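User: C-alpha cells for this one?
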Amino acid sequence: MNGTKTERIKYLVETLNAAAKAYYAEDREIMSNLEYDRLYEELEGLETETGMILSNSPTVSVGYEAVEELPKERHETPMLSLGKTKDREELRAWLQGQEAILSWKLDGLTVVLTYREGRLAKAVTRGNGEIGEVITNNAKTFKNLPLSIPFKGELVLRGEAVISYSDFEKINAEIEDVDAKYKNPRNLCSGSVRQLNNEITAKRNVKLYAFNLVSAQGVDFENSKEKQFLFLKEQGFEVVDYLKVNPDTILQGIAEFERRIETYDIPSDGLVLTYEDIAYGESLGRTAKFPRHSIAFKWADELRETTLIEMEWSASRTGLINPVAIFEPVELEGTTVSRASVHNISIVRGLKLGIGDRITVYKANMIIPQIAENLTGSDTLEIPSVCPVCGGATQIRQVNEVQSLYCTNEDCAAKKIKSFTLFVSRDAMNIEGLSEATLEKFIDRGFIQEYSDLYHLDRFREEIIQMEGFGEKSYGNLIQSIDASRKTTLPRVLYALGIANIGVANAKMLCKHFDYDFDKMKCADVEELSAIEGVGEVIATAFVDYMHREDNLARMEHLWQELDIEVPQIDASMQTLTGKVFVITGSLEYYASRGELKDAIEQKGGKVTGSVTSKTDCLINNDIASTSSKNKKAKELNVPILTEEQFRREYLGV
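Assistant:
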C-alpha cells in the first residue's frame, strides 16, 4: 500500500474528527462546511482505493459524544447518518422509478421522542448515534411540542429541534456585548436543548419538527411514508415541509425548495429524499454507516472568484482581534457580498492568505459568506504585531487547538469602549443615553477612565452640553439615568464588571450561592467556585484571576462608593437548610427541572453544587442503584443517596 496515501488517510481522519467534535460537542467551528465536505470526499475516495478504513474514521462513526452533565441512554435502534449527494441527476437516478418524499433537512439538534398513554414520556438527543442525552424536561418547553396526544399506544418519533433565524436575531439583539453574541442558530439551539435548567430552554423559543415516525403501536400506515406524516399531523405535531415526487417531478421539486431557501426562516442545510414505499426502502437494507431508504441532498454552493483586497482586524472587549476578509464585491445567491469573517488565525494560516490573492467565496447554507479556497496560496498575509486600535503588542494564543490573536494592552481603547458599553447596557447598570459612539467621545476627551467616573460626569457639564447631539435636555436626561442606576442589585453589578464568561445567569447564580455577600465571593478560590453547579474550572479561573488583580480591586472599591446595592431580605425562620450542601443528578419526577429543585433548596438556605465531596450532605438521585460516577463517589464517601420523595420527607418535611 502506498505509504503516502496511508499517512494522508490518518491525517484526514484526525482532522475531520477534530472538526466534528468542535462543531457538535463544543459548539465552535474550526473549518468551513465546504472544507469539511471536500476532505470527507477525499477520505472516502482514498478508503475505496486502498481498502483501508480506520476504526475511528468519520465514514464509519457518526455524531458527537454525549456530554457528562445530562443522564445518558442507549437508543433502541442506532441513529445512522445519511448518504449524501450534491448532484440532482444522481438524486433522480437514486429513485429507481419509485415515488419518494422530498423534505427539508433542518439544521438543529435531532431528538427522539417517546409517548406512552398519550403523554410525552421521554426525549433523548441523538448523541453519538448509539447513546444520547435525556432531555425530557427541556423538551416539555419546546414551543410547538404537544405534551399529550390523542393516540394512546406507544409512539416513537424523531424530530429536529431548531431556533428560527428571526428568533436567533431577536435573542442576539438583546445582547449588547458583541463578544457574548451567539454565532449561529444551530449552536444556540444545541446549547439551549442541552441546558441543565429548562427555564433557559423555555426562553429560547425552541421548536420541533418531526421528520420520521419510528413506530406507532398497532397502527397500519398502508406502507406509506406520507400517511405517517399525516398521522403525526393529526396528533398535533408539526412535520417538516415536504413534497411527494417521482423521477419526472423531482427536479421541479428541488427547484421549488431552492426558491424558498432564501426567505425560509428555519435553518436548513439541504433536503432529504425518502422512499414513499416503506417496505421497499427497508428491503434495501443499509451500509455500515448509511440506511438505503433515504439520501440527503446538499446544495451545490454557488462559488464566485474574486480578489482579497484587505484583511480588517476588529478588536473586542476581551482583547480578541477578529480577522475579516474584504474582497472585490461579487454577486452570491442574489445579493452583493464583499466581506467574510475568517474567524481565527488557524483558519487564516490554513487558507494561506495574502493580499491580492485570488480566492473563491460562497454562502454557507446559502446564508453566511465564507472563503472556500485560496487559488493563489501566497501565504504572505502579515499577522499584526500591534493592535489596530491602541498600537499595543499583540499575542497569538492557542485555546482548544485553535489559534487566535489578542491585544495584550489592558488599557486598549477598544477594550475600554466595549467594557463601558457592557457596563451601561440594559442587563447591567441600565444607563440610557450612552451609545458606544458617545462613550468613545467621553473616553477620548478624558471624561471617564474607570466605571466610577460615570457618576461624576457633572464635572464636565458645560463641555458635554456643547457636544454635537447634546444639549441641556439630553444632558439632564443622561444625569437622571445615571443617578437612577445607583440603586441596583449585586447580580447586575457583577455582570456589568465584564468578567470573562460571567453572563447574566452566572452572575445571579454566584450571588445566590454566596448569599449576596460580595466580600465572601471575592475571596473564593478556584476549587470552591468550580464545585458550584454550572460554573466549572474555566469560569472559576477567570473570576479568581479578575479578583486577584490590584487595579480591578481598586476600581471596584471606587465603584462601590457610588452605588446603593440592595440585598434580598431573607426570612431566617425559613432557612431550615442553612449549611447543608446537596448534589442533584438524574431525571426528576416531582420537580419539573433540576433548576426548580435547586431553587426550592436555595430558598431554604441550602446550597447545590455540581460534584460530590466530603462536604456533601446528600446526593439526590431517583436511581439509587445507578452505577453513575456521582453514585460511586457518594458511596465511597458515605454520602447518603436519596430519592426525591425521601429528600422531600427528610429535609423539607412534606
